[in-house]
């Protein structure tokens, strides 16, 4: 829609209602058609002016008449839609809100024991989530009214300017329009619409949040406009992103000047780099999670309902900021460790022992955040919810797993390197104090306990998924569901075999050939399941070529790109599980392992985006 001289932005227009807005483009084209006759009123020479011919006079009068008819037709269309929205949606929202406030007050009066207080808290959470959706709709109705009022005002003004200059202004057109306009819902319900939206905002602040209206007004309008970031959050995210990027660039240049990427067997490469490798992959995965939630919120994917997390969830902005904080912390410790290991003699503040302790502290800080017992601090409810998911995964082999449990288990199966490096960092931290810095790495990598945990970290996610599929296959009474579970069991067993042979390959050279076959079979089976079952593409007879009929994301090329990238990323996972024997130096092995872990984290989040979209379409009945 053309918005010249308009006092609103494109974000004020609801895409789903676009066809019900006044068609400014077509009406402005009618006005632009008489621009051809401007030379009659503004001649190139003051003594030379061409008179209008009869057919030109007829054309101008005809355009004026057409404009008046189209303007009134657009008014009828807009008024009909606004009347329906005002009567059947906005007034219903206000009544529902008042009823819910009344129920909330009754529950607050009855909240005396623990059970009633818990019911009160659950109702508040559901009420807040429902209110955000209803307020967004009410805000859209109000903005729809304001935008169309502005459009009609601008069109009448342009009509007067254009046709008065030509001398063909018809007083009857604006007079007839204003007579109809003053009797329309669009006009005489303007004040009432504004009062309804203001009432919802003030009542929510005072009766639900118990704060001043000014404290929640900005957040509500931000949510209604579909903006995930406030101005403050945007500034904070930009600063954190800048700090993280600068630290990475500085670290890369520092290592390049030291010829670090050539043959390098330094203590930093052998001992400390594995700690930074796993933690970097973990924090980037957290950042990818925030981005995927941003995509879901932007495309109206009801991921909270799909995952069953209506009660506990974080917004995309909160997740991205948390991930950026951890990345900045990682960058600062990484730079200090680099300086300490390569330039320790140049400054008294640099110490290899202190740098090693700080490197191990990265995982400790993250775990401390997860187990922090302080309530109402650092998203305490979200951290408790995380540990409840871990408990659900542990009992899932004997208890029917939910979709959220299965989804979380799939996330774990993508990060064997993170689990391995986390266990190594704890072992390295202990050995630092027991045997000294020079023996810490060799003690950890050669211990039987670490080798067992190394093997278990690559298998634990798939073992839980294997047990979950067996559990569901036994419990289900649906033969189709049982068939899919059996196929899934076969698919997961290929991954278990591949990981087992990858581990044995370190000690038996003949196992390499078996591993190659198992790895290829595993990657292909997982890829086929991804595209046919999880992405649900390649459906026969689909009007979207090679995809499916219903698509929640607006761009088709995104699906085609995901199908291709997922194939390459599935084989990148195969490289991650190998001993990387084709790379000779330790730094080459470490860098490739890091890249493989980051790629797998990105692939998993890409998988999340399309898997949740598929489940969302099933829930809303479009699939």
Q: What are the salient characteristics of this protein?
A:
disordered N terminus; mainly alpha; single chain; 623 residues; elongated
Average pLDDT reading: 81
Number of strands: 0
Helix content: over 70%
Helix segment count?
A: 21
Overall SS class: mainly alpha
Strand content: under 5%
> How does the overall form come out from the CA principal axes?
elongated
- Following the backbone from N to C, one meets helices and strands in this order, namely HHHHHHHHHHHHHHHHHHHHH
The biggest beta sheet, please?
A: none
Termini Cα gap: 32 Å
Radius of gyration: 32 Å
Uncertain residue ranges: 1-6
Secondary-structure map with pairings?
Layout: H1 24-32, H2 54-110, H3 114-166, H4 172-182, H5 185-188, H6 190-209, H7 213-224, H8 231-257, H9 267-298, H10 303-307, H11 316-342, H12 352-371, H13 380-395, H14 403-413, H15 416-434, H16 437-446, H17 448-475, H18 479-504, H19 511-534, H20 556-577, H21 586-619
Helix pairs in contact: 1-3, 2-3, 2-4, 2-6, 3-6, 3-7, 6-7, 8-11, 9-11, 9-12, 9-15, 9-21, 11-12, 12-15, 13-14, 14-17, 15-16, 15-17, 17-18, 18-19, 19-20, 20-21
Structure description:
With 623 residues, the protein is mostly helical. 75% of the residues lie in helices and 0% in strands. The protein is built from 21 helices and no strands. Helix 2 packs antiparallel against helix 3 (114-166) and helix 15 packs antiparallel against helix 17.
């Amino acid at each position: 829609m053309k918005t010249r001289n308009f006092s609103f932005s494109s974000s004020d227009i609801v895409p789903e209602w676009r066809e019900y807005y006044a068609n400014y483009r077509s009406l402005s084209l009618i006005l632009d058609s008489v621009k051809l006759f401007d030379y009659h009123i503004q001649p190139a020479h003051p003594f030379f002016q061409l008179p209008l011919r009869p057919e030109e006079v007829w054309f101008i009068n005809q355009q004026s008449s057409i404009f008046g008819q189209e303007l009134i037709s657009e008014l009828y269309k807009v008024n009909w839609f606004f009347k329906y929205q005002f009567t059947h949606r906005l007034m219903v929202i206000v009544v529902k809100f008042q009823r819910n406030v009344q129920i909330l007050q009754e529950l607050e009066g009855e909240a005396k024991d623990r059970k009633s207080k818990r019911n009160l808290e659950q109702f508040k959470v559901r009420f807040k989530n429902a209110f955000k959706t209803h307020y967004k709709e009410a805000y859209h109705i109000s903005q729809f009214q304001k935008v169309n009022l502005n459009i009609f005002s601008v069109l009448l003004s342009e009509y007067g300017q254009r046709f008065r200059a030509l001398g063909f202004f018809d007083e009857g057109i604006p007079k007839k329009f204003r007579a109809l306009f003053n009797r329309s819902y669009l006009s005489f319900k303007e004040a009432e619409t504004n009062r309804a939206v203001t009432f919802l905002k003030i009542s929510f602040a005072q009766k639900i949040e118990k704060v001043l209206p000014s404290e929640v007004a900005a957040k509500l309008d931000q949510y209604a406009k579909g903006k995930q970031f406030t101005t403050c959050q945007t500034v904070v995210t930009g600063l954190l992103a800048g700090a993280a990027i600068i630290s990475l660039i500085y670290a890369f240049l520092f290592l390049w000047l030291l010829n670090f990427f050539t043959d390098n067997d330094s203590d930093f490469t052998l001992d400390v780099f594995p700690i930074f490798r796993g933690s970097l992959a973990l924090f980037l995965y957290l950042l990818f999670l925030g981005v995927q939630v941003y995509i879901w919120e932007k495309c109206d994917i009801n991921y909270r309902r799909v995952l069953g997390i209506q009660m506990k969830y974080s917004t995309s902005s909160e997740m991205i900021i948390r991930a950026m904080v951890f990345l900045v912390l990682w960058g600062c410790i990484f730079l200090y460790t680099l300086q300490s290991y390569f330039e320790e003699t140049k400054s008294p503040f640099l110490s290899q022992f202190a740098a090693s302790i700080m490197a191990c502290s990265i995982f400790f800080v993250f775990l401390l955040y997860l187990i922090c017992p302080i309530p109402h601090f650092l998203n305490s409810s979200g951290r408790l919810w995380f540990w409840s998911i871990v408990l659900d995964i542990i009992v899932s082999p004997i208890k029917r797993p939910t979709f959220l449990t299965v989804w979380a288990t799939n996330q774990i199966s993508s990060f064997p390197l993170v689990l391995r490096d986390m266990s190594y960092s704890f072992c390295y931290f202990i050995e630092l104090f027991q045997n000294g810095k020079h023996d810490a790495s060799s003690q950890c990598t050669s211990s039987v306990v670490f080798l067992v945990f190394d093997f278990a970290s690559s298998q634990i996610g798939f073992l839980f998924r294997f047990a979950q599929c067996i559990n569901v296959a036994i419990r289900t009474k649906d033969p189709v569901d049982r068939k899919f579970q059996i196929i899934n069991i076969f698919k997961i067993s290929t991954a278990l075999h591949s990981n087992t042979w990858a581990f044995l390959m370190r000690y038996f050279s003949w196992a390499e050939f078996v591993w190659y076959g198992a790895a290829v079979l595993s990657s292909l089976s997982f890829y086929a399941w991804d595209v046919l079952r999880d992405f649900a593409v390649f459906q026969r007879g689909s009007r979207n070529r090679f995809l499916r009929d219903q698509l929640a994301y607006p761009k088709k090329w995104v699906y085609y790109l995901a199908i291709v990238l997922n194939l390459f990323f599935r084989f990148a996972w195969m490289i991650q599980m190998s001993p990387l024997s084709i790379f000779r130096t330790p730094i080459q092995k470490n860098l490739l392992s890091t890249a493989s872990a980051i790629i797998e984290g990105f692939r998993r989040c890409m998988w999340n985006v399309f898997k949740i979209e598929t489940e969302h379409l099933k829930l809303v009945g479009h699939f």
